Amino acid sequence: MAETARHVARVPDDRPIRVAIVGLGRIYDLNKLAYVDNDDVDVVALVDSSAARRDQRQTDWPGARTFSSVDELVKSGVVIDAVEVLLPIVAHEVGVLKCLGAGWHVNLQKPIANDLAGAERIREAADSADRCVRVMENYLFYPPLQRLKEIVDSRQLGEISTYHMKMVASGLGGWEVPGDTYERQFEQMRRGRGALFFDDGWHKLSTALWLFGPVREVRAWIGTTEVFPGIDIDAPTTVAWEHVSGVRGVWDITLAVDMFLRSDYYTNDERWEVTGRRGFARVNRCTGRGLQQPSLEVYLDGEMRSFHALDDDWASSFLRSGRHWLGWLRAPEGPLNWGVEEAIDVLRFALGAYESSSRGGVGVDPRRSDVGSRGP
Ligand SMILES: NC(=O)c1ccc[n+]([C@@H]2O[C@H](COP(=O)([O-])OP(=O)(O)OC[C@H]3O[C@@H](n4cnc5c(N)ncnc54)[C@H](O)[C@@H]3O)[C@@H](O)[C@H]2O)c1
């Protein structure tokens, strides 16, 4: 997709980039990697409504000032170039608008917002503040997926016909997810935005747009499974779509509550497979480390080529994504991966799927101006 980076951000080279990190929860542990041991940045402020989180994270940045809200940060007069916004999705819009109002560039965690109206308000605020909002998509920086894209673009697989994704969320293994993080995810689910399809699934929809361009029709069957009384997880889910290019995509989400999966992070067993007229290529994992297979395999002319030496630690995608952003602030050239426009395309794709599911699986064009308005 052609990406438009409309807001030119150029932080002068003669000093470190002054950064505030807003939201110090679970994903902070990976987002911080681009900043750690980086002389080119100075983390000057930390913001979280939880005093315990502020105390915990202050040990990483003893010189940073801490605040309990973005309002306090704005009032403080601390001089800042850019903000890393790692707030819960429902707090993205308010947080981003305040940062833009203070004149700061923003690197925002995905999903941009729960609905199109909120995403459009972020776009308008960035326009009027003439500041850059990036909606980070770390999967586009995961080396096996980057290599998959190179293989697709090189046309060695021949004309591409299908894109298959599989995602199994397992209940055992992985890192600890704090109770309050879960509680915020459950609130999202009660708003009709599931943890698997919308929150984590955002990345999978992104890879489809990144690899194969705009989508003209999506059909979905989004299910639910009650895992605790009153807590419904959005699986089993099946989504199918067609790109404008003619490539078809299929993605299924499964919940395996009692399955153990080795992982340093979330227990998510993921696969990506692209099939062309001459062969196929597949990425065997990302977040989890369940399968001890090479992270990328390519089948062509009766032979399988296996990639054993790619950096396939999911954390690397955060480090690389963050470093890309910091580099972009110095020299704003090339794609942001993603900008607000691309994030809105991902949101449209998700809203189209929700609408399709609520209407019995009918085909929905995500480019329709009111996509999502006929769904939940
Ligand atoms: N890129 C990825 O792979 C990935 C993975 C996980 C989460 N995420 C995204 O990262 C974001 C944060 O997720 P998380 O898992 O770290 O959530 P979390 O709930 O663990 O952390 C959010 C933090 O924000 C604080 N907070 C909440 N409201 C606040 C407010 N109004 N002002 C100041 N602080 C506030 C909370 O105290 C908490 O410490 C979400 O958008 C989520 O979708 C992305």
**Ligand types:** nicotinamide-adenine-dinucleotide
* CATH class category label of the largest domain: Alpha Beta
Widest sheet: strand order? 8-11-12-7-13-14-15-16
Q: What's the name of the CATH homologous superfamily of the largest domain? A: Dihydrodipicolinate Reductase, domain 2
Structural domain count: 2
List the helices and strands and how they pair.
Layout: E1 17-22, H1 28-31, E2 41-47, H2 51-58, E3 65-67, H3 70-76, E4 82-85, H4 92-101, E5 105-108, H5 116-129, E6 133-135, H6 143-154, E7 160-172, H7 179-190, H8 195-212, E8 215-222, E9 225-228, E10 231-233, E11 237-243, E12 248-260, E13 268-276, E14 279-283, E15 296-300, E16 303-307, H9 314-330, H10 340-358
Parallel strand pairs: 1-2, 1-4, 2-3, 4-5, 5-6, 7-12
Antiparallel strand pairs: 7-13, 8-11, 9-10, 11-12, 13-14, 14-15, 15-16
Helix pairs in contact: 4-5, 5-10, 8-10
The structure holds nicotinamide-adenine-dinucleotide.
Task: Tell me what the structure shows.
The protein has two domains: 17-138 and 319-338, 3-Layer(aba) Sandwich (Rossmann fold); 143-311 and 349-358, Dihydrodipicolinate Reductase, domain 2 (2-Layer Sandwich), CATH 3.30.360. The chain has ten helices and 16 strands. It has helices at 28-31, 51-58, 70-76, 92-101, 116-129, 143-154, 179-190, 195-212, 314-330, 340-358; strands at 17-22, 41-47, 65-67, 82-85, 105-108, 133-135, 160-172, 215-222, 225-228, 231-233, 237-243, 248-260, 268-276, 279-283, 296-300, 303-307. It is globular and about 60 Å long. The protein starts with 16 loop residues before the first strand and ends in an 18-residue tail after the last helix. The mean pLDDT is 95. Bound molecules: nicotinamide-adenine-dinucleotide. Residues 23-27, 47-50, 53, 69, 86-89, 91, 109-110, 138, 181, 184, 199 line the site of nicotinamide-adenine-dinucleotide.
